[in-house]
């Protein structure tokens, strides 16, 4: 593993280490099923093993890594059934977030989402997938926040953590990436009009399309892995 990661300040160190590790997992710098090598990660992140282990425990609680007795931790690799079940729940959460946000979003929140959308489009134009994904995820979180339902947000965060890496990789197909951007433009339009049924419909379709892309990628990779 290589990463251009700067030294991390001491404040809330394990949380910042968890953030860095989460980013590495999402961007596939730590592959699904790979063992988390503590010595190597300590060197890359420039931290001791104590905050690193605390960070790994945080990610285990989020379902991103699995702790194995006497074997350390590995990056979670979801089965096809896990992926289908998780996307099914996530689609419902996204749809509800959009529906509620359409009726509750403030002008300031809408302006912030629009600003992130334009930044995301710039990243898409540059084909900068990491920047695009970070802005994309921020937009979805902002829509969820605008729904103003803390129970929904807590559930959303927990379920979404399992899918971040798969959602990131789903944009590596150029044609599918372009289609996802068009869906985001439809989202922004519906949100601007405060159209709750339209927001629910576009977010539900967006997650279902994302699910289909992910399943296609998983099935395509399966014969190669077997070979």
Protein traits:
disordered N terminus; 227 residues; two-stranded antiparallel ribbon; 9 helices; Four Helix Bundle (Hemerythrin (Met), subunit A); 74% helix; 2 strands; mainly alpha; Arc Repressor Mutant, subunit A
Question: Nutshell version of this structure?
Answer:
With 227 residues, the protein is mainly alpha-helical. It contains 9 helices and 2 strands, in the order αααββαααααα.
Tell me what you see in this structure:
The chain has 227 residues and is mainly alpha-helical. The chain has two domains: 13-75, Winged helix-like DNA-binding domain superfamily/Winged helix DNA-binding domain (Arc Repressor Mutant, subunit A); 80-226, Four Helix Bundle (Hemerythrin (Met), subunit A) (Up-down Bundle). The chain is 74% helix and 4% strand. It has a two-stranded antiparallel sheet with strand order 1-2. Helix 5 (107-126) runs antiparallel to helix 6 (129-146) and helix 5 (107-126) packs antiparallel against helix 8.
């Amino acid at each position: 593993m290589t990463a251009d990661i700067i030294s991390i300040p001491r404040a809330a160190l394990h949380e910042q280490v968890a953030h860095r590790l989460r980013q590495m997992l999402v961007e596939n710098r730590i592959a699904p099923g790979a063992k988390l090598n503590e010595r190597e990660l300590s060197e890359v992140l420039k931290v001791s093993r104590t905050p690193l282990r605390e960070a790994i425990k945080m990610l285990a609680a989020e379902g991103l890594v699995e702790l194995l007795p006497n074997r350390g931790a590995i990056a979670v690799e979801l089965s096809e059934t896990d992926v289908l079940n998780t996307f099914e729940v996530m689609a419902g959460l996204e749809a509800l977030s959009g529906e509620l946000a359409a009726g509750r979003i403030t002008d300031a929140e809408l302006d912030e989402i629009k600003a992130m959308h334009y930044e995301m489009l710039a990243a898409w134009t540059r084909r900068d997938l990491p920047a695009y994904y970070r802005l994309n995820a921020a937009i979805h979180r902002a829509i969820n926040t605008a729904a103003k339902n803390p129970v929904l947000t807590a559930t959303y965060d927990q379920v979404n953590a399992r899918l971040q890496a798969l959602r990131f990789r789903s944009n590596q197909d150029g044609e599918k990436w372009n289609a996802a951007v068009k869906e985001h433009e439809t989202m922004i339009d519906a949100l601007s009009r405060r159209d709750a049924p339209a927001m629910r419909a576009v977010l539900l379709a967006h997650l279902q399309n994302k699910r289909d892309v992910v399943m296609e990628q998983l099935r395509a990779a399966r014969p190669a892995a077997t070979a």
